[in-house]
Amino acid sequence: MTVPAPDCSPIAATMLDFVFAQVWARPGLSRRDRWFIALPCLAAADTEGPLRQHVYAALASGDLTIDEMREAVLHFAVYAGWPKASLFNMTVDAQWQRIHAERDQPVPPPTPLLPLATPSDPEARLRVGEQSFRDVNCLPFAPVRDDPYSGAGILNFVFGEMWLRPGLGMKQRRLVTVACVAFQDAPYPILSHVYAALKSRDVSFEQMDELALQFGAYYGWAKASRLAQVIEEQKQRVTDEWGAEGATTPREQT
After folding, report:
1. Angle at the Cα of 130 (from 124 to 135), degrees rounded to 5?
2. Sign of CA dihedral 191, 194, 199, 204
3. Long-range contacts: 121-127, Cβ < 8 Å, 24+?
4. Which end of the chain is less crowded, N or C, counting CB atoms within 10 A of the terminal residue's CB?
5. What is the distance, to the nearest Å, from the Cα of residue 43 to the centroid of all Cα atoms in its chain?
6. For 21-62, how does the pLDDT look when each residue is reduced to its tens digit (9 = 90+)?
7. Within a 13 Å sphere around the CA of 1, how many CA atoms are in the beta-carbon half?
């Protein structure tokens, strides 16, 4: 990863000694997983220089493939907004071209978008979206199809298409989503997505704690403190539910 030129400023020392030497090296999350937290934070903060450096490093190192990066941009667009995602997307394209130019290689053609992995029939697609909503959110119900937001947006696209796309694993989509809802100050989504990530076991209790630390390093400790509070609350909720269900809790797992 490109790091700032050495200087004596407190922020430069902190970035080198804490963020890169300590946070990125911690064992709770892989370096690959940490990209899915750091990159949404940088894209949301509109930081062109750091975003450019981190996108380049994630791709050049091979930690993320170009398909995974582009899927992360799409997922980010849904949870953080299309205007901010436009810079993210342009940065990915520019750094992908830069990497191939430096290696004196042609840029490979993009992966075909069609056919989609989900049904094209409108009614079938909505049914798939309803089931996906229940599965992703660990809930027994789905929104009703009574307005464009719920029907065309949530059921048809967000859960009827995006969450089911093959370019990213469920764990990585959870990491991007939790990072996005944490910096959005959206009171209900942060509760529901932290809960679902833990309840599904896609993200372990330890990994969620590491997510909060990585998030704090990239988006600030004030917002990270709220995320950490929610995590503790949802850990207890999930543990109580597992106990009531007779399920194995994380502390009982081998």
Report:
1. 125
2. negative
3. 122/156, 125/156, 125/160, 125/161, 126/151, 126/155, 126/156, 126/160
4. C
5. 12
6. 899 999 999 999 999 999 999 999 998 999 999 999 999 999
7. 22
